[in-house]
């Protein structure tokens, strides 16, 4: 499944020169400045539990095409983020010449990483040729694309946020009910948990994981508020918005499960305890008494906030590596080691925001069409009037 109106591709290796993304389909005349993107790039780099790499990088975007004097032109938008670590990898990652002696092939695949299946598939005996692209470094490019989509959605009053629910076994009840406030609290937390007073306990937990030479995953939630009813469609499998969101989330490196609204819990409850009752108010129009379904019914948004819960597995690079086999000698030994993060759930939640923004911008453009912002906005006004009078 792919996007229906927007298109984007990313390119670049973790220790290559940098990352590129090309995004096409954003209407002309949208205000867009590097600051809009840099804010999210910087947020993605934060989070307790990251390894040494984040001290090296200082992700900043350069807009290479599709924007002139701070406004989109409708042409493909090219985004470029430099890898500062390239300086240390120039010889080992050179696109030209022959490998020098410093190039030691990576031959001991890490269980849980793309190393072995990717090596087999692409017939690469130096597994670095796989791991460099499989690395979650690529998510910086997605966050840049997502930030452009957020900028677009903002023009329609749609806001996206996220917060961490748990890291490994460490979790606490979330007291705050309001989604925007949860997001704002998460912004002040070192682990993006919506109660910064719990930071020390999360940090202690992450330290204990590090001391054991282990890694940990976790759960985060991403939401969108201000979404109109009617994005996505029930009429065809690949137009259903929940399926599109799930695919986008699962495409993030290391994600293993996606739930919408109550998700797994809804399978245990009876119907009356799950479905969101409908009310009508002459001022607000149709509304719901609850939001157990997380803003989607029949593959269509229903006007309630979209709430997505995503589970991330532990990072596969371990200080105390698991059993593996050297692909050259076929000897059973321990997997290779690379510098790594211990926990990257806070960063993943920012990537989740980007993916939700991309899917919703695509679905909004699918609904409204249009090549320039004034046109899209006029169509949106018409559609809002239709919703009010329905
Ligand atoms: C990653 C390994 C680490 C992470 C990296 C993802 O990088 P390195 O091997 O350079 O230490 O820091 O994440 C990023 C570079 C990033 O920008 O998020 C991996 O193997 O997936």
| Radius of gyration, whole Å | 22 Å
Contiguous helical run count = 11
Ligands: ligand EPS
Low-confidence parts: none
Q: Which structural category fits the helices and strands?
A: alpha+beta
In angstroms, what separates the terminal alpha carbons? 32 Å
Taking all residues together, what is the mean pLDDT? Answer: 97
How large a portion of the residues is in β-strands, by DSSP E? 15-25%
Helix percentage: 25-40%
H/E topology pattern: EEHHEEEEHHHHEEHHEHEEEEEEEEHH
Write the layout of secondary structure elements.
Layout: E1 7-11, E2 18-24, H1 34-45, H2 53-56, E3 61-65, E4 67-68, E5 71-72, E6 77-82, H3 86-89, H4 115-122, H5 128-134, H6 139-154, E7 159-167, E8 170-171, H7 179-187, H8 199-211, E9 218-225, H9 241-250, E10 255-260, E11 278-281, E12 285-288, E13 296-297, E14 300-301, E15 306-312, E16 323-325, E17 332-334, H10 345-368, H11 373-389
Antiparallel strand pairs: 1-2, 2-6, 3-6, 4-5, 7-8, 7-9, 9-15, 10-15, 11-12, 13-14, 16-17
The structure holds ligand EPS.
